[in-house]
Structures are given as structure tokens and as C-alpha cells.
């Protein structure tokens, strides 16, 4: 096995949760509000359905092929040659998506560091993530646990502090245009929720596998609840202006004022958000590195870390000339790719495996 | 690199053989003739003016020789209990040595030896050795006594409430201090010698039944692996057995306090006592145990919990405050409240340096003062503190070299770094402060966050003898939060922390919460 470490189901949840919410929290309310208007509180529910579906597919695949990641499962299901082609495509997708995530991060940070080149910002993050990936899944799990409260507590604190300014009246009229707008708004978030399929890389290293399903489901539910709350808070605060505000959570932070002393906390939000981005990018990075090593039948993945890190930085520039272009890509193209590779394709593999009755040979040994 | 270390190994092997030939020929049996033995020992101790050879006759007939090192042996006792007794006795020629021991010499600790090697060891440890003509065995008397420091209050780990005894340089005083607190025979103390020349005595202490046997075996193996010429302080051992030598964080706890050692032994850790130093090594350790003081357990639990959180806060301040200041001044003005920003800008007006340079200057000066304060002769202490107050203080501000807020930041950071109860842990955090300042100076808050992330990654990577360094926060162990996030009262500390492998989980009886309904006067 490439990965020798073990993590707990709780650690898996704490890795995946920031993966789901960190990008979504920043631009999510704006994206969802564009289609759903004041019904955006319902959108996370629709989009989380694909998350539950992805969890189901990953768990079922893992039940048939325990101890394997999606790359290895592909090999076992489809045979060597087709799976090699699919594996390479899959890795390309992972690279591209990681690149886009890094670019989103860099463009966001560049708002604060106007004179720092984008390449420096993204390379700095990749270097940091490379250390985490080098440490393996155990280090990833532990850092996620340490940072989890640092990610959640400031968010709750901020919501508490803007509480007096909230106007629940912005919610009305509820569903005056039917359910359709709220479903339309769910298109982009589909991609974010399907990312939960990355548990496919973590399920084989779980120390307590029976709890894995519960942890994964709770993670998606938690992400859905978080997004609903964030949507509601931003809606209550900004009302009709929400579709025009690029990063609503930043403007929420601007509202915060404690004793007329702590004001303009946007930079603090940026600092907190870096943690989420770090865990998200590390997880994608780890999946890419581990997947590549498994695809190429390597015996250890560490030598791949720096080359792939370099590629991710490159992919964060290729084909993305500007911030506007990035916005267009992330609205439709990336969610489509994500939904395809994290939900549709594994689903097809699962169906094929069921139809052909394929199971891992090691299944005879009772697992976990 | 490979060939270099190979050469080093070869050199060490040949060197070891040579030194063994010189000092301690392995298993040379004692000869029958006293003259042969005497010649052999005199050759070995040639040019050693501190070794005393005293020839005499037992009962006026049998020739005998007492050998000891001046200053390591209780001479009066040797004269009274051994020399005078033996000189005045009458002895049949072929009487066995044991009879001599049993009947004549009133010394409690004595040992028979048959090789020159054993004699050398006994002499070096201060035990006088008696050689007798026509005997192939020698006797060592437990009459070692040398000048040693009294048991004093530990200097580096002070407490208001708690025992005031500290370890001393003498190994057997230290083991006695442990045994006086933990009286069970389950407290084991394995003795070994480390160091080709110093032959330092090292004791591995643990409580059987509580400790994980694999942990003891691992430590024993790591200690056994050490091949070094001398061990002068436990730091040598620490560096030779730790898991991550490149890390700035200490992976083994050092303490001068017997109560800290006993507390850790009772939690299933092992202690390594080294002769010649009052600092005892305790492993495995975690980051949080470095932030705990023994007094936390003696004060009321609410007070201890509060003080622990104060300590965590100031540990973070000592790590981050200068870099936060630099980041705010350089990049994020808007986060500083306007009135404060104006006064800060006013005080920075005359300062010629950018904030980063200013912070570095002051922090380095502070570190220099601290180091000088530790090292300087006591007579010049006053001078340094006066000059120090000038350098980091009003004079520097008035000269326009630094701003007043910077002085305050440095002062708070300095105080914060001394709030960490274990000095070595404080050094690690003070060291990491400098790269953090550079990160803050180049990338602002982002740099600080990246620095924190890298630090946490590093802390998640290292282990101390198999125990993750960030236990119980990463990995989360809720049962151990009672002794890290808070200091739960003793009646709640029912379970021991889990380190590695098997452990004795239950520490004490359940339901011991006191109250008016329990005990007291029968109503």
C-alpha cells in the first residue's frame, strides 16, 4: 500500500468539511442569489443531494472493493487499458480543478496584496500544502483537526456580532416564483458538493470503517447547514443587493464592530479563509499525487509531490487569462467537470460493476 | 556522505577497541599473587596521583592492598571499619574470603569481584577495593562518599505551592528522591553505563504495570544503541534518542523536580536519570505537557484552568505578537482603529527603519540581553540591567531609533516567552518568532497564516516515542481534554492518558466527588 497511515472517521469528516464549504462560503451566496434571489436559503438543500449521492456511490464502490481508491477500483472494474486511459483523464481533471481552486484563492488574496504577483501567492500555498502532503494522510487528518475550531469559531463569532443588523424581512416573499429559481441556483454548488467523493481516497485508510458512512453523511449535512446559515445571514444583511456583491461574507465582516475598536475585519476573514483553502488544496493535491502514483503503479508517492505541485501552479494560469474569465469558468464548466468526474463517472463504474457482478477478490476475508 | 559516515564508523570501532585495551581489558581474571595484581593496577593507574595504594598485613601476616581514589571514598570509615579491624585480627591462612566479609568487616555494602575490570569500576565509583595475597578474588566496600550539593529548591522550575526539593547531580540521591515518593516495588530502576570514557551511570525508571512494556523495550534499545565517548549531561542522551533531531521542538521533557517525574511515571511514562546532572529526561512527551507546570496540580482546579489558558494565550503572543504588529503596520492599516493608528503613526514618524527591521533589531537585542543575563558574572548584573533598560526603553525611543509601541510589543513578547514553564519549549517558540516576522514583513497576515500552517504541519508530523506531538488535539482524544484544555479536579481524573500500546486505564476509584453528603459528621 502506498499510504501507511491511518485516520479516524472524525478526521475524515474534518478534512472533507472545509473542502466542501471553503470555496462555497466565499462566493457561494452571490452565485446562488443570481438565480435564486431571496430563495437562496433553499438552494444548498438541492445541491447537497448530489453530495449524498456521491457519498452513496463512494461507499458502495468501497464495499465492493474495500481498501481501494477510485483509481484502483477503475482498474479492477474496467480492466487495464480502458482504466489507464480513464485514470489519466481523471488525473487531468483533478489537476485542472486543483489549478482552478488555487487560482480562485490567489485572485481572492490579491485583493489584499495588490502588488504581490499571483504566481508568488499560489506558489506559497502550494509549498505549504506540499509539506502536508509529504506528511501523508495522518498529518492531513491532524492538521484538519487542529484547524477545525479555528475555522468554525470565527465564523460563528462573526454571525453573532452582526446579529443586530440582520433583517429577516429580506426573506419575503417566500418562493413567489415557485421552486424553479432555487433549483437553478443549485447548478454551480452541485460541483462543490460532489467534491465529497474525495472520501474515496480516505475510506481505505480509515481506522474505524463502520463509522465512515455516518461521518461522510454528517459532513455533507453539516456543509449544507453551514451554507444555509451563511446564505440566510448574507441575505438578511444585504437583501436585494446580494447578487451584485462578489464576496458577501467579506462585506459581512465589514459590518463587524466591537466596541468601536475592532473594525474592518476583512483581513481577518482572509486569514481564516486561508486555512480552509489550505485544507481544500491539500486534499486535492493529495488525491492527485496518490492517484498518479496508483495509476503508474509506483511504490511510493513522495517523489511526485513537487512535480505535481509545479503542475498545479501551471494549471492555475493555463487558459485563465483574467479574473472575469475565471468567474465564467467556475460558474458552469468546473461544476460540470466535477459532477461528471465525482458523481456520474463513478456512478457508471458502480453500475457496471453491479451488472457484471464484479467484486474484489479479497472480499472473502471479512473486512472492518 | 555515505562513505564519510562509514569512515566515521570504522574510526569509532578501532578507537573503541584501542580505548578498551588501554583502560579496561575485558575480563582479565585476578591473579593469585598479590604482587602481580598490584603491578597490573599500578600500570593502569600510572600517573594518576589521586589513586591511593595502601599496603598492609592482615593480622600481621597476610599481605593485603587497599586501593581507593582520594576524595571519592569515606576515608575515616575505611580506616575504622576495614583497615584497623583487619590489622588487629588473627586469621588462619586459607580462610575463605566470604568469612572475612561476614565476620570481621562491619560494612553493609560489600561485593566480591574476580576480574580487573570489576575492580576498576568499583574504584572509579569510589568504592575502595581490597586485594589479598593468595586470593583470586577481591572485595569492594560500599564506602563511596564525595562532596555533593545539598538538595535545594529547583532554580528553573519554581512553584509557590508544592514540594521544594530538586534533583541534584548525584544519581543515587535522585533515585532515592523518587523512591521516597513512589514506594511500591513496581517502580523499577534499570541501571546501565553509557560513555566509553566517562562510563556515566544512567538509570531507566518506570512503573511496571502502568507503563507499556514495548515503550520500555524501545527506550532500552535506543539507550543501548548509544556509542559515545562521554555523557556529561542528559542533553547528550536526549539528542541521541529523540525521534526528529531536526525539529526545534523538544520531544523529551526535562525536569529538575522529583514530583514532576513521579507524576509522569504514574501516567505511564519513563524517566531517564543521568549521573552528574539534576535534569531528568521524561518521555514520551507532547506539546501540551511542555505547557504544564507541576503547580497546576496542587492549586484549586478552577485557578489552574484559568492559569493554563493564560499560559496558552501568552504562548501564542510570544509566537505571534511581533509579526502581527509588523503585518498590521506594513499591510493592514485599516484593521487598526483610527485613533490608535494616528498615535502609532506619530510615534513612528521619527523612526528611520521599516517596521520589520525595527522589530528584528529590538527582538535580537532582547534575546542578546536575555542571553547575557544568564551568562554574566553576578557582579556585573546590575550594569547589564541598567544598560538593557536603556537599550530597550525610553532612551531608544527618545533617540528616534525605535517607536514606543515597538518597545511595548517587545516587552510583552519577552514576558510571554518566560511564561512557558519549561525553558526549552520557550526557546523553540522564540526561535520560530523570527521566520514569522520575515513572513509577516513580506506577505502580511497571509504570511503569518502560512507560517502558522507550516508550524502546525510540522507539529502534526513529529512524534515522541510513538505518541503524536499534538495529542490530544490532533488526533483528538476527548478523554484527555480533562488535563489539557482544563485541569479537572482530582476526583474527575479517573483515567490515565493513553500513550502507546496497552495501558492501565483506570487511575482511581470512581464517584469520589466530595460534598456535604459524603463523610463529615454523621447527621
Automatic annotation (TrEMBL), chain A:
Gene encoding this chain? gerKB_1
Q: How does it sit in the membrane?
A: Multi-pass membrane protein
Entry-linked InterPro entries = Spore_GerAB
A GO BP term here is:
spore germination
* Upper taxonomic lineage: Bacteria, Bacillati, Bacillota, Bacilli, Bacillales
The places in or outside the cell where this protein is found are:
Membrane
Grouped into one coarse class, the protein's main location is: membrane
Q: Does the keyword Thylakoid apply?
A: no
This protein's UniProt keywords: Germination, Membrane, Transmembrane, Transmembrane helix, Transport
Its protein name is Spore germination protein KB
Per the UniProt record, the source organism is Brevibacillus parabrevis
Where are its TM segments located? 7-28, 40-59, 80-102, 108-133, 145-166, 186-203, 215-238, 270-292, 304-320, 326-355
- The reply on keyword Hydrolase is no
UniProt similarity note = Belongs to the amino acid-polyamine-organocation (APC) superfamily. Spore germination protein (SGP) (TC 2.A.3.9) family.
Q: Which GO terms describe its cellular component?
A: membrane
TrEMBL record, chain B:
Q: Tell me the segments the record calls region Disordered.
A: 11-32
Known Pfam families for this protein?
GerA (PF03323)
Which Gene Ontology CC terms are recorded?
A: membrane
List all membrane-crossing ranges.
270-291, 312-331, 381-401, 407-425, 437-459
Top-rank taxon, per record: Bacteria
The Gene Ontology biological process annotation of the record reads: spore germination
Alphabetically sorted, this entry's keywords are:
Membrane, Transmembrane, Transmembrane helix
Compositional bias per record (Polar residues), positions renumbered to this chain: 19-32
Member of which family?
Answer: Belongs to the GerABKA family.
The entry's protein name is: Spore germination protein
| Species annotation | Brevibacillus parabrevis
